[in-house]
């Protein structure tokens, strides 16, 4: 490594020289920037380069990213809060500190300008460091001489020698090392055996892998490469996803709990269909952990609305006094009719609140569009009644009559009611995923190279009938030591032990 | 050799810096892109919807009048709050040429009819059954949102908060006076 | 049947670890140690190692039988996950010790593992069926690999701590000695918390504050700190003392903040008492007691071992806690990265050890500096595994 550092320095010194071609390139670079004195231009590029190539700078960027990332975990990020209004949510939930958190932009830490800038600085640093160190390393290993000075070989941590040896012994040693998958190069009276040169570049492989991951993440900026959305679909409903040009239909939703109290969900599954226009193009029984993939778009069973909604039901009309049934009618909670006829009786829907609330100050109103808690007000008229009888009916509040202290003339009974749930599907189209996964693969490969493989070299040199053999590895000296001794046993050299640093 | 090394350094640094600036620019442009706003001052996009009583109505039917388009829903509390003010303004200025179009978002006829009866609304209610007018055409984010359209059919003002009678009056009066 | 077997082997493992911890500590504190060669295993530590192997094997059986019983890898809740982490720590120790023969390491690893295991037992231990999000083979792949990585990184902490104890002059009042003493105190904080949590839970203590109001708070330790706005002494009594003694500050806004704050107070009091008692028994800073155990150990070897554990654990951690996590998240949540706190803390841990490796390999940091980093790394891992679940909730909150 020390040798390499020298070489790096020469590389850098070479860069100081001036020549015409460079200047033009830098002039191009400087265009659009503020004018700089010609002499200084070279210095700027050089100092930018040296800045990013420096290890302390790289470590500082990593440290800043580490600290920055922790800031984003203090309170939930905006994408994870159960409210569409972050400006109120943080204050309401976390008080003054929450307010400050929101004001500082920490409620979306990972998309702030400074966090993204840090990521990009890291990327620049990864590129420059890899070129700055990787290229000279590649060159020096490519151009390494076969013959080293005997003095240098003697100084190796692994060293052995054989008296009265010749080319024959050296070749036998070469053969033995070849069997151990070393690549052999020979010159007159000198031999270089090398294996695992690639692991020396492991760190740069990791850097490249990380760069691929970062690139894969940023591909979402390319129009059409990234789209994500959450759609809520009621049973039987079809919802268009305009951005992707298809519709999703919920053909049935199943929900099951492990226990009677409904505290632990066992499964929730949707029969989903994809429509292009009126054409059904894909169907799947969607379960968690198993998405439907349609034209690069992943459709996930993500969640569901735990509160059931009323779908439809049969309502029976009775004379309250005699409890005599007068007939039944079908009621659709999603889209009721203005009027229902039961025998001789007419039920006019005066008011319908799909999700009724009764409040002292705000009166009667609906809290949402969906029939979670329907409230219907009927005007019932028929034979024997001069005035229509106005009365409420609420399936969730069967004793509404008593609650209001009213005296109704009729009873209204639900006979069978269908409830249904809304399924929550997540859509995700991210064409960058294969790139990110490739980056992960490359990174892991690099890690394996760095930590589990070694670069081993053995040099042999004949001088005055003595074969000098030196060995070097970048790690795992014990393993190298064994291999060294085994190879040397072929030419009857006693085992040696590597020198401590 | 020397030339190449140095040139490649320059090129690398320049490309990296340009790419980073480009990415940052794209990220923030991308984020802003999501908020598409409707330009005020231009002509109001025309639309045709079914009314609560089953007729068809278009914005262009009311050319030459001052139109207040109000997007609302019965489950929205601030919408309920401003309704009486809108009704009052409509009754006060309809003779001078004010039209109110109450565009309901995706609700069904029966609950809307009940709501209209309870609040004694007299202006036309239009049923935006798939939110196409509200979201695609008028880029409505929160409701209530109201648009004021002058006699020439241009969008003059937008209010994305519950309005008071005074607010409507102050906005509508100059529009009614203009083009007389 | 399977469950009883699992419970039996789990108990065996627990007591084996306990026995191993005792054997190791006696081994390193005993007189023999000073006479014999330090590198050589004494009678006690040799048996400690054997008992440790028995413990690891029993826990392996306990995990497998529980797996068979539940039909899924037993890493789905806090108890299962933390005991699995202990398993990986002990396993990593058993394997590494087979190569490096640093028996004294056991005197550190065994008590740490035992403490975590005791803490794991505080959580509910029954096998609960899986919620849909966890019904995936990725559960076993992701969690076991991540835990293995974390287990190996924990060994780095133990070796780093030992290194510091060897090289630091603890007789004086140097800053390093004080920091070390503080680190030891922190360990006893953990122990105190576990003792208190287990104790009160064992006694079945529960107190429901604000039972007839909208905001109910379930205290599992007597409420020394009441919800803000409560009159002091108005809630309940403990041994005749009216509680609460103090009010939770108003700026602690979370729903369960008073309970958390109360637990913190109990833990601080408990740790001070525990530390005080031990200090009285030892009659000197505890760091001096413990540093005696490691005297004469090869510091360079410990340094190397600490680094080696990071070198092995880091790739495993990357694979398990980041790459596998991303693939599963993509399949289950529809996004490979959601900045969920657990995910983010895995990234933070990774960045932390990335900095460690660069400092060590490129800046030549060695010895004390990296040893302190390895010790602090344990705090990061501890927060990743436990702190995130207790303090921050997120997508991973079903793991509790």
Automatic annotation (TrEMBL), chain B:
Its transmembrane ranges are: 7-28
Domain Thioredoxin: residue ranges: 38-177
Q: Name one Pfam family in it.
A: AhpC-TSA
> What domain of life does the UniProt record list for this protein's source?
Bacteria
- Which InterPro entries does the UniProt record give? AhpC/TSA, Thioredoxin-like_sf, Thioredoxin_domain, Thioredoxin_ResA/DsbE_sf
User: Which UniProt keywords are present, listed alphabetically?
Assistant: Disulfide bond, Membrane, Transmembrane, Transmembrane helix
Q: Gene3D superfamilies from the xrefs?
A: Glutaredoxin
Q: Name the chain's protein.
A: Redoxin domain-containing protein
Record organism: Tumebacillus lacus
- What lineage, starting at the top, does this entry show? Bacteria, Bacillati, Bacillota, Bacilli, Bacillales
From TrEMBL, chain C:
Q: Where in the cell is it found?
A: Membrane
- UniProt keyword terms in alphabetical order: Cytochrome c-type biogenesis, Membrane, Transmembrane, Transmembrane helix
- Is GTP-binding among this UniProt entry's keywords? no
User: What protein name applies here?
Assistant: C-type cytochrome biogenesis protein CcsB
Task: Report the membrane topology from the UniProt record.
Answer: Multi-pass membrane protein
Broad class of where this protein is predominantly found: membrane
Ranges for domain Cytochrome c assembly protein come to 76-203, 274-396
InterPro entries in the cross-refs:
Cyt_c_assembly (IPR002541), Cyt_c_biogenesis_CcsA (IPR017562), Cyt_c_biogenesis_CcsA/CcmC (IPR045062)
Instruction: Kindly list the residue ranges recorded as spanning the membrane.
Output: 6-26, 47-69, 81-100, 105-123, 143-167, 179-200, 259-282, 309-329, 344-359, 371-392
**Origin organism of this chain?**
Tumebacillus lacus
